[in-house]
Specification:
By secondary structure, this protein is mostly helical. Helices cover 73% and strands 5% of the residues. The protein is flat and about 95 Å long. It starts with a helix and ends in a 6-residue tail after the last helix.
Length: 459
Amino acid sequence: MPAIIISMNSIIRVFMCMVVVLASFSFMATNRANSQSLTAAQKAQLEQELVQVEAEQKQAEKELSVAQAQSSSLSRDISVLDAKIKAAQLDIKAKNLLIQTLGNDITVKENKIEDLDQHILKSKETLVMILQKTNEINQNSLPEIILSRSTISDFFQDIDAFDSLQESLQTIIEQLRDDQDTTTVEKDALDKRRNTEIDARYAIQQQQKNIEGNQKSKQQLLTISKNNEKAYNTVLAEKRARAAQIRAALFALRDAAPIPFEQALQYATLASQKTGVRPAYILAILTQESNLGSNVGQCYLSNPDTGDGVYVKTGNTVAKVMSPTRDVGPFKTILKALGGDIYKTVVSCPQSIGWGGAMGPAQFIPSTWLVVKDNLAKLLGISGMPDPWNPGHAFMAAALYLSDRGAIAGSYSAEKNAACKYYSGKSCGLVSGNTAYGNSVMALADNIQRNMIDPLQGL
């Protein structure tokens, strides 16, 4: 039989096989997803439990507010601790219910993505086979094709079949594109669910710490109540003394003089009110930048044309202090507006990769500072150029930048990812070192909240 007949029959067989493969994968994906999902009754029960727990949480929060509004006394403090413990326990219960639901959703999504990936792979492989067979036909000349058929009628039947096959190929290609788009959507949804689960587990860990600390404090107060009220006054005096120490402790700032923690907290609280980013997290970012500064050092720009500079302490030459094409021009603009000297103004030294040139406690490069300056000035309520070395301006700038990068969501994953972007401009894991930066910021935020901000509450 002529070669052209074999080629056409092979194409048709391959095409039919592909249709079967596509149908079988669609059937498999549907059945796998259904087999892994919760039943309607199970979902309804989980949702009902979650609604009930959330209602109990609201009631516990009301009880806490009532207890906190009472005058300071031993019984009042015990009531506050009881309310905090109850609220934390209910939050843990709610988060565990949420994790149950998420766990099911994540499994379903993972299975669906796996099926889609396999579907796409098999479809591509079959599509390649069809295209190869199609290419064989295209390589035959028209006389060869005509002569290979026994009748003209057979030739035109093959042409009709070939045209139909071409249309089917286009349909398959469009289906592949749809599958790829669906896979992207499913992966995005899976990432969100995973982040929500991570946030819930982190919240449980934090609440467990809260319960442990509050139970310890409650036990101390119960021990006092068995003795006398005078012992309670001693405890209050110790708390006030500790609070005074915290407020007076110096808060280190990169490339600027340290300020009392009380003032730093005021700056962070104002920035939080304007941007929605929590104070402890803002303080953690500024602390992390200060820690980096102690390792990297301080520099002056010395050559605007090349971007080279010198170390402040030693005067030794150092390359890549500031990008001449990106930042030197904006740096001149900023210093001209502030009345500063570009050769005697401290900026960051370069790290192992990239350029230095970041300014002040919040470590903005000059080009980025010019981008945010107008919105920043509005938040600060000033006219003219905000000052990167002014602590109050730096706190607000950091909060504004972090808010724009998702920290306003307040969840663990959102704040960590925003910190990574603050460090490198990209999400965690995409740039060497930024995940470590994000982890450090989150640990600092927890420490600052528990050991510096919380002790000041209620005093």
